Amino acid sequence: MRAKILILGSGLAGTIIANGLCRRLGSELKGGEVAITVLGTTPRHLYQPGLLYIPFGRIREQELYREQKTVLDRRVNFIIDPAKRIDVEANRVETQSGKVLDYDYLVIATGSRLVPESIPGLKEGAHSFYDIEGARKLRAAIDAFDGGRIVVNVNAPHKCPVAPLEMTLMLDEHLNNRGLAGKFEITYTYPIGRLHALEPVATWVTPEFDRRGIRSQTFFNTAAVDPVARTISSEEGDTLPYDLLITIPPHRGAQVIEESGLGKGGWVPTNPKTLLRDGSTNVFVVGDTTNIPISKAGSTAHFQADTIIDNLSLLIQENRWARDYDGKVFCFIETGMNSGTYVWFNYTTPPRPSPPTQMVHWFKLAYNRMYWLSACGLL
After folding, report:
1. Is residue 283 exposed (0-12), middle (13-18) or buried (19+ Cβ within 10 Å)?
2. Does residue 270 form part of some domain?
3. Domains of the chain: total
4. In the list 188, 250, 290, 354, which could disulfide-bond 155, CB 3.0-4.6 Å?
5. What residues make up the domain containing 85?
């Protein structure tokens, strides 16, 4: 009997898994023993980490996109028809167009979405770089900026956890290079009592901020933004004025997850080692969609995807488990326009940021170019 694999989501994780399974299950696909279907929301694939460079004019928009069909293995049945309802008891998914697809194995890679509207005034009064439209508008705002008060406001939960630090450090250097030294001040807000959720990262960046004169305010959980008065207020009672407000909006999981009753906030309860949905034996969860308390980052999705490829292919071929996910994450951190560092960690090893170097910055730029090899599962 043919094994049907259904992958919900055509972002990095869903794409890597589909391509990896095609390589591992080549003979089974050729013999008709396995079928792989991917449900996507768009015909184009976006390289999301590249959005960080758009506000500084360091990358062209067209470099961030490829047609999804050119990224996926030709043996994958790619359908642009998002999931509307997931029924894990009946092993079936209903799409927005009304189609019903059944499966033997399901991979949920539906990612996360921005919800700036959850905070009054945030959508109207703040800029962001977490989607292409926001990155474009922020580019225009930075180009027009000639001095004043900047607030970089971080809300939780959010993906790309080091990106707010990267934006802050890059913006500081960018404005200084434009001759605006002494004409602006940056205040960075964070919702807990340190500058990053990972304590070693917070310990590293605190003196870096001090050295550059970047101000910070912790325990700042955003309550509202007043776009007319140009102020941002916290639940703790603090109010900051701004001339330019850059925010990382709070995130939620995909709406289909909530509407299907699979997880509060759109995050699916997931076993941190097997990456199976809690209570399931045939539903895998990957990337931003999980509720695992580790960084929601591209590398997280990549390493988890590799684990799922190993396990799912071996389950089909030999009916046995290959290995567990160890919590591995690797993140480059831009520390300016020409320097960078990195962190890697897993469930048992904490991150230890190293001193920034120009070489690490160039490594990150090189990876930006090699991303498509990762999506294709070749890197």
Report:
1. buried
2. yes
3. 2
4. 250
5. 3-111+254-328
Q: Look over the chain and give the mean of its residue pLDDT values, rounded to a whole number.
A: 96
Say how many Å lie between the first and final Cα of the chain, rounded.
Answer: 32
Residue 111 confidence (pLDDT) above 80: yes
pLDDT tens across 278-314, in order? 999 999 999 999 999 999 999 999 999 999 999 999 9
Q: Is the whole model's pTM more than 0.85, yes or no?
A: yes
**Domain's final residue, options 202, 229, 250:** 250
Number of residues assigned to the chain: 379
CB contact set of 323 (below 8 Å; sequence gap of 6+): 307, 310, 311
User: Residue with structure tokens 């940021």?
Assistant: 353
Measured CA to CA, the distance from residue 161 to residue 337 in angstroms comes to: 19
Q: What is the pLDDT of residues 335-346, one digit of tens each?
A: 999 999 999 999
Same domain, 131 and 235: yes
Assess whether pLDDT exceeds 90 at residue 349: yes
Instruction: Tell me: do 199 and 213 sit in the same domain.
Output: yes
User: CA 25 to CA 318: how far, in whole Å?
Assistant: 12
Give the DSSP H or E segment for 67.
strand 65-67
Instruction: Report the run of H or E that residue 57 belongs to, with start and end.
Output: none
Q: Tokens for 144?
A: 């027009």
> Quick one: DSSP state of residue 267?
P
Asked if the structure places residue 361 within a domain, the reply is no
**In this structure, are 46 and 169 located in the same domain?**
no
Position 282 in a domain: yes
**For residue 24, which phi and psi values (nearest 5 degrees)?**
-75, -30
Q: Give the CATH number, domain containing residue 128.
A: 3.50.50.60
